[in-house]
Amino acid sequence: QKEVEQNSGPLSVPEGAIASLNCTYSDRGSQSFFWYRQYSGKSPELIMFIYSNGDKEDGRFTAQLNKASQYVSLLIRDSQPSDSATYLCAVYLSGGYQKVTFGIGTKLQVIP
Amino acid sequence: GAGVSQSPSNKVTEKGKDVELRCDPISGHTALYWYRQSLGQGLEFLIYFQGNSAPDKSGLPSDRFSAERTGGSVSTLTIQRTQQEDSAVYLCASSLVPGPTEAFFGQGTRLTVV
């Protein structure tokens, strides 16, 4: 089982819809969770992080964390064509090497 | 520097040659990661350095790959006897502490093995 799992997509949504991106992780000791966005040909950049169970909202983005289910998601409201990118889920585990582990990313396509 | 700097930005090499890729992390960042990303694929973890601790080399795909980090700052990823399947973008990232803080990525080195 991979440490961080994401569906590679592509996930296609119409402009103005809600895009829901999902991520599961294997280690219950995971403490912190990040969502990065990567435009084609560019490097990943952080868009959201979440540490506690529940929802965290930032503009059109909402991160949701459920530690009991080992599940973290990213919702993008009012999706825009400019949101088309690959979204990478990353998880930080404090034990062992104390490193951040990335999923393979979900490609999102927002159709005008 | 202001960000993570990688060099060269592009490298074309002949099959069988050795290459060195350089990463200069943000000053003061103790954690440094190397990733590989093939065209249209996700991030593949290669190696992780944290301060003076032994690096996590679990992602290195073969013994042709090695990396070092001198003085806790600049890192060099070396690929010996390059193969065509090594062609990819090699990304370096650094973070301030080995904790729940943002990792900043460099712009990557695009390696093409011909």
Structural class of chain B: mainly beta
Could you report the average pLDDT of chain B, rounded to the nearest whole number?
Answer: 92
Which overall shape of chain B is indicated by the principal axes computed on the Cα atoms? globular
Query: Sheet bearing the most strands of chain A, described?
Result: 6 strands, mixed
Oligomeric state of the chains?
heterodimer
* Individual helix count of chain B: 0
Overall SS class of chain A: mainly beta
Percent of residues in helices of chain A comes to under 10%
Beta-strand residue fraction of chain A:
over 45%
How do the SSEs of chain B run, as a string of H and E?
Answer: EEEEEEEEEE
* Discrete helix count of chain A: 0
Low-pLDDT runs of chain B: none
Give the termini separation of chain B: 33 Å
Number of strands of chain B: 10
Mean pLDDT of chain A: 92
Helix content of chain B: under 10%
> Rounded to an integer, what's the Rg of chain B over CA atoms?
13 Å
- The separation of the N and C termini of chain A measures 36 Å
Q: What order do the helices and strands of chain A follow?
A: EEEEEEEEEEE
Biggest interface pair, counts = A-B, 26 and 23 residues
Number of strands of chain A: 11
